[in-house]
Amino acid sequence: MTATKTSNSQKNAQKSAKKFDVEKIMSEFQERVEKTKISAVKMIEEDVEGNEKNDMMSLMGFSGFGKKAPEKQKKEAPATAPPPKQKEKAVNPGKGAEQQPQGTSAADSADEMSDSDDEDMDVTPQSFPVTHEIKLQHSVKAVTGLALDPAGARLVTGSQDFDVKFWDFNAMDSRFQSFRTIQPMENYHIRSIQYSARGDMLLLSSGGPQAKVLDRDGKEVYESKKGDQYVYDMSKTKGHTSAMSNAVWHTKDRNHFMTCAADSTVRLWDINKIKEQTTVIKLKGRDGKKINPTHCSYNPDSTMIAVATIDGVLSLYPSKGPYIRPKSANKAAHQTGTETSCLKFSADGTKLLSRGGDDTMKLWDIRKITAPVFSADGLENAFEGTGCCFSPDEKFVMTGTSVKRGSGDLVFFDINTFQPVYRFAVGEGSVASVLWHPKLNQIVAGCSNGIVKVYYCPTLSSKGAMLCAAKQRRRAARNEDQATALHNQIINPYSLPMYREQRFLYAKRRKDKARRDPVQSSAPDKPAYGLDAHKTKGCSMSAFESKRIALETHGAPAEEEDPRDALLKLAEKCEEDPYWIAPAYGPETKNVYQKVTEETLSEEPPEKKPMYFYNK
Length: 616
Description:
Elements: H1 2-60, E1 67-68, H2 71-75, H3 106-119, E2 132-137, E3 143-148, E4 154-159, E5 164-168, E6 180-182, E7 190-195, E8 201-206, E9 212-215, E10 220-223, E11 244-249, E12 256-261, E13 265-270, E14 279-282, E15 293-298, E16 304-309, E17 314-318, E18 328-330, E19 342-345, E20 351-355, E21 360-365, E22 374-377, E23 388-390, E24 396-400, E25 409-414, E26 420-425, E27 431-437, E28 442-447, E29 451-456, H4 465-469, H5 480-488, H6 507-516, H7 541-554, H8 563-568, H9 571-576, H10 582-585, H11 598-603, H12 611-615
């Protein structure tokens, strides 16, 4: 009996346990169903809100600002570029992609991954300010220098045709014409242009050994010294001796800037010191010989200097020294023999972006530059100044592709994965230089055929190109007199001269007509010089002064006065006081004058007749 009771109690316990497990499973299943319902409702609400936003945008007419970029170039990838879904093949993560940067923990990396997962979303062309564009015709050669002032009001472009042009977005209309063109570097092409932190000065570097500082209106403020090319030790010269590669402003001190050139040096300058540079950094390659730099840059607080050389080495120097050797360096950052065309620091100063001449773009952590964090391949770089930059929110990275033939592209990468998220063809040659303004949220691309394109989006961008995209050309208003004269005028080209009315002419045409009229506007007589003085109507300075003095002393002669009559006026005076004639002819001399009559004058030739005879 006891055995049967224990077996029954065990069976009841097992049944109750089974019942408990089933209830738990059912409760968990109901919770999961509710969660899925809530998530589905949220997705539907988000889709409805997105459709409402799109409808509101279409109703408010945001798509009517400026010229819309061609959709074929954005939807259909060019023949040289792979389709958007296959772009991952062109991106190869570097060896350091899986390594954590120095100074970060596993928890930090997990937090970053979770943040990146939360921020993952569908990237569309509307996510970037590239829906609209305007074209600025600079020249017919590659635009290698771009600069926008901090306020985003003025754009400065420099090209390989030696010209620097100034564009004002507030004053331009739909013709998109520059208001000033200068040649500050004479016969050297422009390599780089940069505004100062305050926007009151411009720093220019060219193919020559000297850099120039201009004010906001293009007037020269400072010019660096040129060094002696026959001195072997470059630290003993007062400036660069070879073509410059780049020039950048100091981010904190408005009077200091940095340059690098093909004389294997990086030099620091002070505008207040005219005679020479303040510091010289001599660069050496792996074998200890001189090596030429291709680009240099300051970090945001100007405590560190990044220098890229032609042997593919990326070096970091403290801005206050010592400069004997770099603080840290990567000797295989890019391929040897290629020019690293751009170096850009992030806003926090911990990331460094490099654009190599080996068709790559790499992201570095400056705390450990032994290996890149990410690397992207297959980005053509045929121009020495092809740039790269961070987006204003630093969620994306942008660069341009430059090819020898064909059109280049603008490529956008996600900074967390370094995968290409959007790519479209510029359609106007290769991309020689790029710029992404943080305040305007607009992208400027300088093309190889001399065209500058400014991309913007009415919903994401502000001011800048949007101010002049829809501004119509101003026409001169006619005043009421001109309108009435044109309205009441009768044009009859076959009428007689006595009945022909004078046609109405505008002010400019009236001035031109008066200038051609010899009576209304006659040029003054030219002074007489040299052997041909007698042929001119004018006279020399001495003759003119003599004539003026005589007129002031004796007065102007009477008009059309006969010289014989003028002499006979003095006959009575000579008879009374023969002071001058008596000693010569004697006291008994009597002057006999011929009496002039009409009969006698008729016998004389015309040239001997007195003048008063013709006036009768």
